[in-house]
Amino acid sequence: MEIANAFALLANFVIVPATAYGAQLALGALGVTIIFGILRFANFSHGELMSFGAMVTILVTWLLQMNGIGLGPLPTALLALPVGILATVAMAVLTDRFVFRFYRKKRANPIVFAIVSVGVMFMMAGIIRIVIGPDDHSFADGERFLISYGDFKKLTGWDQGIAIKQTQVVTVVVTLIVVAFLFWFLQKTRSGKAMRAYSDDEDLALLSGINPERVVLIAWIIAGSLACIAGTLYGLDKTYKPFIFLQILLPIFAATILGGIGQPVGAVLGGFIVAFSEVTVTYAFKRFLAYLGPDGWAPDGLVQLLSTDYKFAVSFVILVVVLLVRPTGIIRGKVI
Amino acid sequence: MSFLAATGMTGGYGGADIITDCELRVERGEIAVVVGPNGAGKSTAMKAVFGMLNLREGSVVFDGTDITGLAPQERVRVGMGFVPQNRNVFVSLSVEENLEMGAFIRDDDISQSKEQVFELFPILAEKRNQPAGELSGGQRQQVAVGRALMTQPRLLMLDEPTAGVSPIVMDELFDRIVEIAKTGIAILMVEQNARQALEIADHGFVLVQGTNRFTDTGEALLANEEVRRSFLGG
Q: Which SUPFAM superfamilies does the annotation name (chain B) (predicted)?
């Protein structure tokens, strides 16, 4: 019984939220890794691209809600998501046409690209502030829980319950579909194979007659779609805060580098590892240990390694350690 | 007029000319070998033929058409295949995917070409699902040659196909190259192993300092006292 309660506690506060957060990071890191694999630069504007996608999705969601259109138990945002994806892809492709292509033609150094992407990031952030403002917005609707804390307790008779939010389920299910589709595309289709070939060796791809501009276009379409989905899911789960998307770059880059830059499988792996580390390190294990220890005993302190305010430090530590110990990442990727 | 006639090629990578008035020719079904000391401009001459180098002077005529102005990708489309010396396979792609990428410009059914490559290099059929980066040096070269053959080229250009492989593998590769030539494909290759290469060559070009020093049949070059003394080690 005690062990069941300990597990429920851990699941409720660590496993479930970290899985959802990991899925969001994985989607973000996939976008960064694909742009790196094809265009060979660290795209700092990816966070704001996520924000842009979430913003468009929110605007369309509001429009749908005003007209009384909804998805019942599911969030209306899912219905608005395709429009958001189209807008984000358009944004990504347009920035490529007007900004990145210029530097590509000049065969600029990757560091120049990275700095240019910082400029793009500020520009996008500005557009977002103008359109939707700097305030937070909650746009989740539909059923709140798949199973609530109280229901779970009633069902099992345990002291501790596991609450599973609807947004967490939506996040995980959508991520599974998107990742499965992406891997199918990269592994099985002609265009996907051409992208991997181009990522592997640009010159040889050229000799094989692969059109680089087409590969780059597909890369931006994928990155834009992933960014919009990741941003929307993150916003659904935790409310949309325009300012968070600058901070979220750190865990996303940590996940990308940890998994191996340019390696899609690594990005997914990295996303979950970073998420679980962040949540585990900032969780107070006091009650968890109390359940496992002898009756009536409880640890004196909170048994919390880091205050939640420092959660971004976890990504930073992971980043530094990976770069020192294994710069190629878990799955041998490119080294910047 | 030869099937491929690259004449009067002069050019370099921006600065000084690396090749001057260089000439390479090859006929259908024949093997032409370019040999010479290190730094003679052999690889540069190959790149010039394939359009990877801007020529200041000279022209490249392929099957009666002047292709001097074409980009490398366009030359692939007119029927030229090129196997670079380094980085000539997609290391993270499987052997089969490498072949598929070689045939990227083709819209028709490629399974027959794939089977032909597997027939030519049986070991590749065995390792078709393995990433090319995990193969041995000789096997990699086979993948590289196979990749280039997938476009069904009429001219196959090889830049040191036997670099870094063992003598046994080298002999085998040469055998395969002769087989490929017998199907009517013209072969132009650069080789470090000059003696062995000239033995299978119909024509040989000895380049020194970016210009033709000797041009003759492979046999005649092997018999030439001066060529032997200077370039073949006695």
A: P-loop containing nucleoside triphosphate hydrolases (SSF52540)
Q: Is residue A248 part of a domain?
A: yes
- Two tokens, residue A191: 């265009």
Q: Does A334 reside within a domain?
A: no
* DSSP element (H, E) containing B205: strand B203-208
Mean pLDDT computed over A236-250? 93
Reported ipTM exceeds the 0.95 cut: no
Considering only A22-31, A76-85, A133-142, which range has the smallest mean pLDDT? A133-142
Range of the domain at A182: 2-325
User: Judged by CB atoms within 8 Å, which residues 89-148 of B form the interface with A?
Assistant: 89-93, 97, 100-102, 104-105, 147
Domain of A118, CATH number, reads 1.10.3470
Instruction: With CA atoms as reference, report the closest residue to B40 among B205, B165, B155, B202.
Output: B205
What domain count does chain A have?
1
Q: What count of CB pairs under 8 Å joins A to B?
A: 54
Distance from CA of B30 to the nearest CA of A (A): 23
* Within-domain flag for A332: no
Question: Whole-angstrom Cα distance, residue A186 to residue A179?
Answer: 10
The residue type found at A100 is F
Residue A31 included in any domain: yes
